[in-house]
Amino acid sequence: MTQVNLSKQHPTAYQNVLTLNATVEEAVTEAGLDPKLVELVKVRVSQLNGCAFCLRMHTRDALTKGETTDRLAVLAAWWESQYFTEQERAALALAEEVTRLPVPARREWDDGSLDGQQVSAVSWLAIVMNAWNRIAIHSHYPVGP
Q: 17-29 pLDDT, tens per residue?
């Protein structure tokens, strides 16, 4: 057996990730993060992890929430564009740090654009998005036109 759908093999574990996701969504709302920023973080984490299933889903969600195709097109190189606010840049750098787990000295995102509640919310958002990416990739969720 080479393919296993993790959500079907262990539905309780999957349900617990759904519960964690709901808790994190509440945290990002309570932290006052813009819904478009939330989707940008989800797309960027999915880009880093190479999760086609989540990329398609969250790109569509971002567009529905009013995100532009221009900003989505340059998201993979956000740091060299002028499309993103300081807060968005800080959140994207933080999400990359959480996803890539670099040496602890790197803190490019820590410029004061995010308050403590927002740092925690974006960190949890990246953590749960990493979990979803790994579930989708390892389960070989189908992605087609």
A: 999 999 999 999 9
